[in-house]
Amino acid sequence: MPTLEEAHTKDTDGLCRVTMTVTIRDSSVRTALLRQQHLLGQERGSGVFLPEGVFIPSPPAWMVALAVLLPALLFFTTVGVIGLCSKLHKEKEILSLREDYEDKEEDTARKELEQLQEELRWRRGLLHAADVLLDPDTAHPELFLSQDQRRVGRGPSRQILPDNPERFDCRPCVLGVQGFSSGRHSWEVEVGNVMVWAVGVCADRVQRKGRPCWSLRMASGPWSCLDTSTGSCPLQRRSSP
């Protein structure tokens, strides 16, 4: 059944104009006939012949469905691709954060292991701790020893002491009573509120009258190797447990 559309308009001269549109979807129809019946009982008809090339066929249902589904499919595919890319990006960020965390954990574990190894070396050194007693016959006149010969401090004045060959006279030094010729030995020193101090070793044959001696020194913070003949050279302090 052809689709009929009718529109009524009124001209400026008061006459009515009727426009009718007929949509023919059947390609087999080649002739359209319009019949009108007037009030006077007269009928008039008019026809239109439709050539084959002019006819525009109606699109099939599958094409209409495809035209509707294709944009929807394209939309959902785009949304899915965007969602997948976003998920992959988030997974990459999580993997990167996890790798950074594992690297930090590994670095922390390595530092803790180094500290434990350093502490172990420190503990092993304490197994060879020596019982150090200070020798008053070697003490510089400005050094004051305690009665138990385990503490020493520098006084405000110079003491009057015998100038024996074992006594230091150029540097405020004092030696221990016991010497060591071999083996491994260590001693722990507690330093009071002083700005300059030194602890070290020297040869037993060293002459105390102006001859050089070697020691480990800390003055105003940095550590240095002190040699009375050549001066001092800086040392790098390792982390202590």
UniProtKB/TrEMBL annotation:
Residues 112-241 form the B30.2/SPRY domain. It holds the Pfam family PRY. The chain crosses the membrane at residues 61-85. Residues 87-119 form a coiled coil. Keywords: Coiled coil, Membrane, Transmembrane, Transmembrane helix. It comes from the Eukaryota. This is B30.2/SPRY domain-containing protein. It comes from Phyllostomus discolor.
